[in-house]
Amino acid sequence: MIEDAELIESAKIPFELNVESEDTDVLIVSDTGMDSRVWSILNTAARSLDLEPTVTLMPATDHPQAEPTEQVKQAMLASDICVMVTSNAIVHSDAAVEVRENGIPVIGMEEITPEILNGGAASANYESFAETGRKLRDKFVEGETISITTPSGTDLEADIKDRVGFSFAAKIEEQPGDNSMLGAAFPDGEVCISPNESTANGTIVWDTSMHQIGSITEPIEAKIEDGFATSIIGGQEAELLRSILEDTNDPNSYNLAEIAVGINTGADITGLMRQDKKAEGYAHMALGSNDDTGGEIAAPIHIDGIAKNPTVKIDGEVIYDGKPVV
């Protein structure tokens, strides 16, 4: 078993990167689906830095982007900084958006485990790939079209003209064109953009892992037409994804919400999205809402899936070929 003392050192990193001396009121939001050891370690790490953390525990949600309880939301709005250590991501929820719009920064740490806290992704040199992330983000922002292909069959194109791009490397900072995005994650390391609505066409093949599914054993293939998934085929995992989307009873859940690439050179593939989607050599494409990442579509879900060895082009220029090319 990993000693808590080792994990506490890693758990200090997101606080050291983001908490100013006057922002001592830290809220750690967790739920009954999480390993209690994780939020306990984060609580200890925050206290060791002379912060004043409070831990709230709510029932586990059914899916990513589900809303926290009203009591938790009010606690979030009263904090200086909010750390979301939940079994399903709530960083795309309406409550989290309201928190950021009120100038309160958030750090997403959904699905994190003691093993992830102890791994290379958590202890990576964030400064070393933050600059690479900014360069990729600038390419996204300056471009008009994006295309992504993978060896397993992904072949997708979309319009990104005038869209906001984001680069995340564990430190909360203003993103050009969207100063309300006061967020980061830990472990972190991704660059993302939401394509213009109804412009994406082609095929996505998720072959690595996905929210609510975990590791993918049989690739999931989605046909994208005018920005929406019109068919999802594969084995049992494709059937599960269809069920998840159908259960939302909302056509916006099929929207192609995001295209992103991982830039964390220390991240391994674990079956958990908290770390997998940050790993260099992988891309993730999401279905569902994009209204908090520069888009206009609200949906009750935002579900990421990962594909390996992507080649990404902006206006025909290769900017990512299994790793950043900038």
UniProtKB/TrEMBL annotation:
What is the organism of origin for this protein?
Natronomonas salsuginis
Q: Which UniProt keywords apply?
A: Metal-binding
* Keyword Protease applies: no
One GO MF term: aminopeptidase activity
BP-aspect Gene Ontology terms = proteolysis
Coiled coil segments of this chain: none
- Pfam families documented for this protein: NicX
Keyword Coiled coil listed: no
PANTHER family given for it? AMINOPEPTIDASE, BLL6088 PROTEIN
Q: What InterPro entries would the database entry show?
A: M29_Exopeptidase (IPR052170), NicX (IPR058739)
Task: Indicate what this protein is called per its UniProt record.
Answer: Aminopeptidase
